[in-house]
Amino acid sequence: xxxxxxxxxxxxxxxxxxxxxxQLLAQRRQLCLNMISSPGSGKTTLLVRTISDxxxxxxxxxxEGDLRTDIDAQRVRATQAPAIQIETQGACHLSAKQVNDALxxxxxDALDVIFIENVGNLVCxxxxxxxxxxxxxxLSVAEGDDKxxxxxxxxxxxxxxxxxxxxxxxxxxxxxxxERVTTDARxxxxxxxxxxxxxxxxxxxxxxxxxxxxxxxxxxx
Amino acid sequence: xxxxxxxQDLLEVICKEARKQEARxxxxxxxxxxxxxxxxxxxxxxxEAIARGTACEGMTLQVEHKxxxxxxxxxxxxxxxxxxxxxCPSCGVDDFELLPDAPLVLEEIEFDKE
Lengths: 221, 114
Ligand SMILES: Nc1nc2c(ncn2[C@@H]2O[C@H](COP(=O)(O)OP(=O)(O)O)[C@@H](O)[C@H]2O)c(=O)[nH]1
Ligand SMILES: [Mg+2]
Ligand SMILES: [Zn+2]
Fold this sequence. Notes:
The complex is a heterodimer of chains A (221) and B (114).
Chain A: E1 2-9, H1 12-28, E2 31-36, H2 43-53, E3 60-66, H3 71-77, E4 83-87, H4 96-105, E5 113-117, E6 134-140, H5 147-150, H6 152-157, E7 160-164, H7 178-188, E8 193-196, H8 205-220
Parallel strand pairs in A: 2-5, 2-6, 3-4, 3-5, 6-7, 7-8
Chain B: H1 3-21, E1 24-32, H2 40-51, E2 60-65, E3 69-72, E4 78-80, E5 96-98, E6 105-112
Parallel strand pairs in B: 1-2
Antiparallel strand pairs in B: 1-6, 3-4, 3-5
The structure holds guanosine-5'-diphosphate, magnesium ion and zinc ion.
Guanosine-5'-diphosphate (GDP) is lined by residues 37, 39-45, 120, 164-165, 167-168, 198-200 of chain A.
């Protein structure tokens, strides 16, 4: 038997595409956010509302990732914003190569912000950098307030946490301790921005919009 | 489930190395960080399945998980971050900066050589 030291990066092809994406976005001074959550937390609903509410202020485009169908891209296109659907055919995450291809299809000159809606999954997408400026983790109140404790990695790595569906808290149909989630997330990530919102009623959305607009200003500088 | 993509890449790198060494690989050790989100069992299963019929058939994989590292904002100590008890072990403050996560690396291959 003989042991050979290799020391070789695995998935380095993904890294290379991520770097290409990141350089392209930096040259163009465009903001790109990678939205990560479990399926059904409300990513598409949040994006559709954000695009409609800010249509006179920011030009936004979306790269949609799903296992199958282009339902989400169609939902986005209904707002007149451009959307490219990536069907991963069962893969649990988007890869930087797929995003690279999608960026080529988007009318980048006509956009201020590019959102990537990752495949619904709180674990795997964190293993694939896409070249984005930041990750936004979405947690809906119906999923429970123990998620930062159970899935720490994605909360540690995100710039923003959107706590969605806060409309469900009134009436006590769902129990969810926003304070606990905030404490748990901040313990892992002191600088994470946390916005409790409802994509349905619009509650809390202005704070998220202010943050988004400030990021666009900083990226342009 | 992204372990399948990892297994595919591993297989290619190990097969290439095996051709270079002109020997049969029997085991490999890889290391990864927390964000690589590798489940050992899933990875080994995926690897076993795609290795069938290749030079890597029957190989065993060993995965070393490296913890996240942080730097204390007060005493500047670098420490392994225990996510359940996220504070500096030297001075106890919970104010720290996360350091980049360990990458996914094929560390070592063991070959059967006469
Ligand atoms: N009550 C409530 N339902 C919401 C809210 N946001 C999204 N939903 C619903 O949650 C479901 C999943 O939303 P979707 O945007 O498709 O989630 P995605 O899988 O993360 O893209 C849909 O039935 C939405 O109508 C919200 O703020 N409040
Ligand atoms: Mg969706
Ligand atoms: Zn300290």
